[in-house]
């Protein structure tokens, strides 16, 4: 693609190039040289650029149109521009205007000689031109270039000078005259919006006799007039070679000039930075998307409280983590009256009676109510001995013998004697009954 670009680019399509062979300085001789197979005679056009650096806005710069001598390929001339001012240079040959290319704005360096201009008088050309509408020029829209015919000498011509790009003849349409805009013609601006351009006017006295005016082409939604041959700025190093573009450059050096290698290096560095930035943005974006997707997934259930089929209740704990009731042990001492009625009272549930949630073959939830048993509970043998007087209980001789519990005297057999009518009460003597041994099995 690069060879094709060079071939079709207007700048590289030129059969010759040119460059400054000395640094432009105030009131000093400047030299340029042409290389290649151009068609002499050659011509140099200098167009002032930017504001004047002199006090009171005094403008001493004029458009200079300098011709090479015969078929010479070199030129030396005195630069009548003050230091810190700028200009744009255009080289042409007999094949057409701007055929050698256009430089970017060149800065005039300082010198001790200032005799080439008068700081008290502003220069003025023989005639000037105007543009309607006065707001400027717009991409693919028509503007009127006009002038006062009485100041013209011969034929009027207009030129477009694009710094660092193409310079061309502005096509002149049919001339018309009216009382508001004098004599002029309409021009459809076939230049891309955003392009900087100088419009230069001339007549038979030479290019620039009518002055120049800088414009920045305004953007427009209409692009029907643009094509591959439309005038524009060109990429790469501009015409003129290396020259100062600011006053910080050394008069004898060319470090202030344009460097194609520096431009390429800057472009490569910028491209690498853009690629790295894009890669980082993509990396963090996909990483964030990954973690967002993980966070939206179903949380890991370390308790496995859901069956695979989803049939279990959502709030039950797994069987190994289900709370179990703390059961009070069965009483080991049962009174005679209680033993007789155990088949009529509810029994506490044992561990085996409590189902675990999610256990196959059992209820899903544990019940909290009590139930009645159809059969009396199986009780172990207990010996109960009642004495008339309290005494120490006997210690079982072995663990296998029935447990004996001694109770204090109940005195339940002592009752008042019935006194018969009209009889003297007879004293009674309570006899202590023999110990009774009751065995409950």
Explain the layout of strands and helices.
Layout: H1 2-8, H2 10-13, E1 16-20, E2 29-36, E3 43-49, E4 64-67, E5 74-78, E6 86-92, E7 106-107, E8 129-132, E9 142-147, E10 157-161, E11 167-169, E12 176-178, E13 182-188, E14 196-203, E15 206-216, H3 260-296, H4 336-340, E16 382-386, E17 403-407, E18 436-440
Structural class: alpha+beta
Residue-averaged pLDDT: 75
Shape, per Cα inertia axes: rod-shaped
Q: Give the assembly state of these chains.
A: single chain
Order of strands across the main sheet: 4-3-6-7
Number of helices: 4
Our Rg estimate from Cα atoms comes to 59 Å
Biggest pleated-sheet summary:
4 strands, antiparallel
Give the CATH H-level superfamily of the domain at 2-120: Immunoglobulins
CATH class of the domain at 2-120: Mainly Beta
CATH topology of the domain at 2-120: Immunoglobulin-like
Would you identify the regions where 5 or more consecutive residues have pLDDT less than 50?
Answer: 1-12, 249-266, 333-373, 436-441
- DSSP helix fraction: 10-25%
State the end-to-end distance. 114 Å
Residues in β-strands, percent: 15-25%
Number of strands: 18
CATH architecture of the domain at 2-120: Sandwich
N to C succession of SSEs: HHEEEEEEEEEEEEEEEHHEEE
Transmembrane segments: 261-286
Biased composition (Low complexity): 230-253, 425-441
Region (Disordered): 230-258, 337-374, 387-441
Biased composition (Polar residues): 359-368
């Amino acid at each position: 693609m690069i060879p094709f670009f060079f071939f079709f680019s207007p700048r590289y399509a030129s059969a010759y190039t040119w460059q400054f062979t000395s640094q432009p300085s105030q009131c000093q001789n400047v030299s340029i040289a042409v290389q290649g197979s151009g068609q002499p005679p050659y011509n140099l056009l200098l167009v002032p650029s930017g504001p004047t650096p002199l006090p009171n806005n005094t403008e001493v710069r004029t458009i200079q149109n300098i011709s090479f001598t015969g078929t010479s390929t070199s030129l030396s001339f005195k630069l009548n521009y003050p230091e810190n001012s700028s200009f744009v240079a255009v080289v042409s040959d007999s094949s057409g205007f701007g055929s050698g290319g256009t430089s970017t704005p060149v800065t005039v360096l300082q010198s001790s000689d200032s005799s080439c201009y008068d700081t008290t008088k502003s220069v003025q050309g023989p005639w000037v031109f105007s543009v309607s509408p006065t707001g400027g020029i717009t991409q693919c829209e028509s503007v009127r270039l006009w002038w006062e015919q009485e100041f013209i000498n011969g034929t009027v011509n207009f030129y477009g000078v694009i710094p660092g790009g193409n310079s061309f003849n502005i096509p002149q349409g049919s001339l018309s005259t009216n009382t508001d805009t004098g004599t002029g013609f309409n021009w459809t601006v076939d230049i891309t919006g955003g392009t900087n351009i100088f419009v230069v006017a001339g007549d038979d006295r030479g290019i620039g006799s009518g002055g120049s005016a800088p414009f920045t082409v305004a953007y427009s939604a209409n692009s029907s007039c643009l094509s591959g041959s439309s005038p524009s700025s060109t990429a790469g190093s501009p015409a003129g070679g290396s020259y100062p573009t600011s006053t910080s450059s050394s008069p004898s050096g060319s470090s202030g000039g344009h460097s194609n290698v520096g431009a390429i290096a800057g472009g490569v560095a910028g491209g690498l930075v853009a690629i790295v930035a894009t890669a980082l943005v993509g990396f963090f974006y996909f990483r964030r998307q990954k973690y967002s997707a993980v966070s939206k997934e179903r949380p890991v259930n370390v308790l496995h409280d859901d069956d695979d089929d989803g049939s279990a209740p959502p709030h039950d704990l797994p069987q190994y983590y289900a709370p179990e009731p703390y059961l009070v042990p069965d009483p080991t001492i049962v009174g005679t009256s209680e033993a007789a009625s155990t088949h009529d009272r509810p029994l506490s549930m044992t561990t085996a009676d409590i189902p675990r949630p999610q256990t196959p073959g059992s209820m899903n939830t544990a019940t909290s109510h009590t139930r009645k048993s159809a059969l009396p509970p199986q009780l172990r043998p207990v010996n109960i001995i009642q004495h008339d007087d309290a005494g120490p209980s006997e210690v079982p001789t072995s663990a296998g013998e029935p447990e004996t519990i001694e109770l204090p005297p109940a005195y339940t057999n002592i009752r008042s004697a019935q006194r018969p009518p009209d009889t003297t009460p007879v004293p009674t003597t309570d006899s202590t009954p023999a110990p009774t041994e009751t065995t409950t099995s």
